[in-house]
C-alpha cells in the first residue's frame, strides 16, 4: 500500500479527478499497467524469501546479509516514499512512474547478475529506491483518473494486487527456481522483472494519460528527507547487523540516536510549516489522535507481515529440507486464505454493520499463529506437521486478508481531502518501515533460538518463538484498532 496524491490539494482531488476521468478515462489496460508496477514492487519484497537458501549457498552469504537482502529493500523504499510522491507532484506522475519503472527494471537486472552478496544488497537498495519513486504514483494516478464506483473497483484491484504479490511471491519464486531456466536458479526471481517492466514501459505512454499537478506548487524538503532516512537506518541497521557482530558499540549508538533523530525531524517539520514551507509531513496530521493510532495499528500489523514469510520460508527449506517449489506450494495455502477473505471482505463487513472487520481478522490471525505454534511444538520432526500446517496456513491467510484489505481506508477515513495525499504517504512509509523492522526483529529471535545447532529441532524452536512474536503482533493490532475506532478524527 502506497501513498496517493502527494501534495494534491482538495480541489485537485475533486474537480481535476472528475475532469480527467470524463475526458481521458483510461481503459482497463491502463489500470493493469499501473498495477503491474505495484505488483513488481510488492512481489520483489517477498519473492526473495524462497530464494534465500539458494542465495546463501551460492554467494556464501552470512545470515545478516540475508536479512539485509530483505530489510534493505524495504528500508530504502520506506525512506524514499514521501520524496517519490513529491517528485511526482513536481514533474508529473506518469513521468515519474515510468522513470521509477525503468530504474526498477535496471536494478532487477543488477540483482540477477550480482556476482557476490555485497553487490546484491546494493542492487536491492537501488531496487527499493526505484520502488519508492514508482509506487507513490500508482494510487495518485488511480485517484485522478477514476471516479465513483469505478474508483472503488480500481482501489479494490489495487488492494488485491498488494496481497497477491505478497502471498504468491513464494510460489512464483519456487516455480522459477525449480524450472532453473538456462541454469539461472534464484537469479531468475529478479530477471523475470525485465520482460514485465519493459512491456509496461512500452504501454505506459500509450494508455496512461498525462496528469498535471492541478496547479499546485510543491518543493522538495532535503533536510526532512535526510532526517527521516537517517532515523530509519538508525533503527533497522543495528537490529540487522548487531546480533551477527556481537552487538558492538556502534549498534547501540545507532539505536540511541534513532529517537533524537525522529524528534529533530518532527521539530524541523513544524518549523518549516510555520515559515510557510512545504514539509514532508503536515504537522496537523500528527496532531490527529485517530490518525496516529491508525499508524500505530499499521506498524503493529506490518512488523508481523513480512516476518511471517521470512521465517516460514527458512523453516520449510532449511528446517524441513523442502525444495523451493514444494515450499512455494505450501505458501499457496496462505494465498488462498488471503484471497478468499479479501474478495469476501465487503460481505463480511456488512454482517458487522458496515464496519471493516479488522479486529476480527487480527484475532483470527492470532489464533492461526497460536494453533501453528502448537502444531510445530507437537509434531516437530513428524510427518503430521505439514498435514496440519497447510490448513492452519489457510486460517492465517484468512486473517491477513481481513486486516490488510480494509486497513488503508480505515486509517485514512475521516481526514479532510487536503491532507489525503500526505497522509497516504506517511501511511505507506510506516508500512514499508514495519516490514523492514519486522524482518530485523524476527531475525534476532529466530537466529538467536537457532544458535549454532542448525538441526530440525533447532529450526522448530526458532519458528516457535517467531510464532509467539507474531501472535503478539496480531493481538496488538486488534487492541489498537478497537481503541482507534472509538476516537473521532481531529484534523481540520
Give me some keywords for this one.
492 residues
Question: Can you give me a brief rundown of this structure?
Answer:
With 492 residues, the protein is mainly α. It contains 19 helices and no strands.
Structural overview:
The chain is mostly helical and 492 residues long. Helix content is 80%, strand content 0%. The protein is built from 19 helices and no strands. Helix 4 runs antiparallel to helix 5. Residues 1-24 have low confidence and may be disordered.
Sequence-ordered SSE layout with sheet pairings:
Blueprint: H1 10-24, H2 28-59, H3 63-91, H4 93-112, H5 117-145, H6 148-167, H7 169-179, H8 188-191, H9 193-207, H10 222-241, H11 249-274, H12 283-286, H13 289-319, H14 324-343, H15 345-351, H16 358-379, H17 384-412, H18 420-450, H19 456-485
Helix pairs in contact: 2-3, 2-5, 2-6, 2-7, 2-9, 2-13, 3-4, 3-5, 3-10, 3-18, 4-5, 4-9, 5-6, 6-14, 6-17, 7-14, 10-11, 10-18, 13-17, 13-18, 13-19, 14-17, 16-17, 16-19, 18-19
